[in-house]
Amino acid sequence: MPALDSPHVFFRRVIFDVTETQCQVAMEDEHHYFVLTLGHDGQRITSVDSTARRTPWTLCPQAAARLQEFVGQPLRQRIAVNLPEIDAKQQCTHQYDLLMVALVQAARPGYREYVSRVVGAMHEYRHAELWLNDEKLLDWRLRGTAIHSNDQFDQQDLRSIMPWAEQTLDDRLLEALYVQRRSVMVAASKGFNLDLIKNAGQAMAARAGACFVFQPERAEQAIRVIGSTRQDVTGPEDLLVGVARN
Q: What Pfam families does the annotation carry (predicted)?
């Protein structure tokens, strides 16, 4: 793979702070900032509260109502790649992902954080890394969505990896893949000026039906939040400043 020397570096930080009865989840990257608080009884989710602090489209916060579908879901040892009873495409993709991971995290009290870095974020050749509590779990070179690495992910493609992953990976690596796959896909938008897009309807050709906002019945009403993309992120320490522990 070609050596990477790119100024396009994308970061995403996700924090889980879990007690015996509550799981707080916070995620921030250049485009998004969500804080979720889940109540649980040690067996199931009992409540979900969402705060959308920064979103790319005006209708994104309305997706919070859909998160109530997670109330009653059992806590898990192994992440579920999908839940047949919950339509992911009618959810906010990013909050849905956070809750899927939280179903596992909530069973284990403690403080944990994922940090993702994607170098060459918007280009064909990329370098993607993922840390959990300062331990590097994933280190990939990518050509498009094809993985080149020195581990079992080598030659897998992010577009079609999940069936293989469910059958092959242990609990920890399956969760890491779930977190990193979304980060890599979001990173591809780095360098694009989303403020030039008036509403989500103008991006429907590529995103139709992908999530709550990109459903045909509401995309035209989902107006771009001008200036919501952060341009000042130089490292993970710039993210979740009000949430992360010192």
A: DUF2889
